[in-house]
Design goal:
With 331 residues, the protein is an alpha+beta fold. It is built from eleven helices and 14 strands.
Length: 331
């Protein structure tokens, strides 16, 4: 990597394009080697190790604010861990080295390696709890949907804004018993529902590319850390999202307070979740609606990565062909 004498914005811009792509590419390839092997922990650890290795090459002073485990869990990219060379801008980093570990272990669609980087202090320091979420893509009036509104109201409002009937709206929901009532209400409206077993980040991001994925709205309860990652991507394309942490025990409330959460019942909007110049990179591990998975073909490894940047509204799709197989895994 060549030395640059430029402004902090230029350094961030450079890091958050090809350099960030390399981080998620390495994590994706490492975990893809274990696709279909039935070992979730091994696949996840391979992604973590590869991602940490690449992050520590970047000229940044980075802090993991959304990570794989609580503070001081060294085998993971833990919350509070410092990464980078420490010779660059201070940045917040949110990571999910292998989102959809079960999907990877079973070689099912939709597993990705994903991370976000933003100016220090601008990503929500979210505890590892559930979050109730609603998200839509770009092109709609502000406030067209609301987390506290009945699902029927949200679907009808979205349909009117899109110029279609309610039964032409496609909602994405995680296939969990907790969503039985939500799914029943969507069915009663005639909505199409895409159910996913895993992949909360991808689920929200699919709203950003409705023309490609067919998803109009994400509804339901998923992980709070995943919500922050997805919010970063939606900010880059002008989508909308709201979320509320589910802090349903005194222990969770206390843990959230230590991470700076002062209002346990606060309804967060997109800027609360990711407010600064944010870049999100995601590389496919297995084939999915958003990205193609890693392909091993002789001496070439093929990857597909999508990169979002909020400052410019830029979305880049990067197809990689990686040669020198041994070097790719070991450099």
């Amino acid at each position: 990597m060549t030395d640059l004498v430029v402004t902090e914005d230029k350094i961030i811009e450079r890091i958050l394009t090809m350099e960030l792509v390399r981080v998620t590419e390495r994590a994706a390839v490492a975990s893809a080697k274990l696709r279909g092997r039935g070992n979730e922990k091994a696949a996840d650890q391979a992604a973590v190790d590869a991602m940490r290795r690449e992050l520590n090459k970047l000229p940044i002073d980075g802090t993991i604010v959304i990570g794989e485990g609580e503070r001081d869990e060294a085998p993971m990219l833990y919350i509070g861990e410092k990464v980078g060379t420490k010779k660059g801008p201070k940045v917040d980093i949110a990571v999910d080295p292998l989102e959809g570990t079960t999907l990877c272990a079973k070689d099912m669609p939709g597993s990705i390696a994903v991370m976000a980087m933003a100016q220090a202090g601008t990503l929500l320091y979210a505890p590892d709890v559930y979050m109730d979420k609603i998200a839509i893509g770009p092109g709609y009036p502000k406030g067209i949907v609301d987390l506290d509104a009945p699902v029927e109201d949200n679907i009808h409002a979205l349909a009117r804004a899109k110029g279609v009937k309610a039964n032409e709206i496609t909602a994405l929901v995680m296939d969990r018993p907790r969503h039985a009532d939500l799914i029943a209400k969507l069915r009663a409206l005639g909505c199409s529902i895409r159910l996913i077993t895993d992949g909360d980040v991808v689920g929200v991001i699919q709203c950003a590319e409705t023309a490609k994925t067919g998803i109009d709205i994400y509804l339901g309860i998923g992980g709070a850390p995943e919500g922050v990652l997805a919010a970063g991507a939606l900010r880059c394309v002008g989508g909308q999202m709201q979320g509320r942490l589910i802090l349903d025990t005194p222990e969770k409330v206390a843990r959230a307070a230590t991470m700076g959460v002062k209002e346990p019942k606060k309804k967060y909007d997109l800027l609360d979740l990711a407010s600064g110049d944010t870049v999100v990179a995601a590389t496919g591990v297995t084939d999915g609606a958003l990205l193609k998975g890693v392909k091993f073909s002789g001496d070439i490894i093929e990857t597909e990565t999508i990169v979002y940047r909020s400052l410019t509204g830029t979305v880049r799709r990067i197809l990689g062909e990686h040669r020198e197989l041994t070097k790719f895994h070991l450099d």
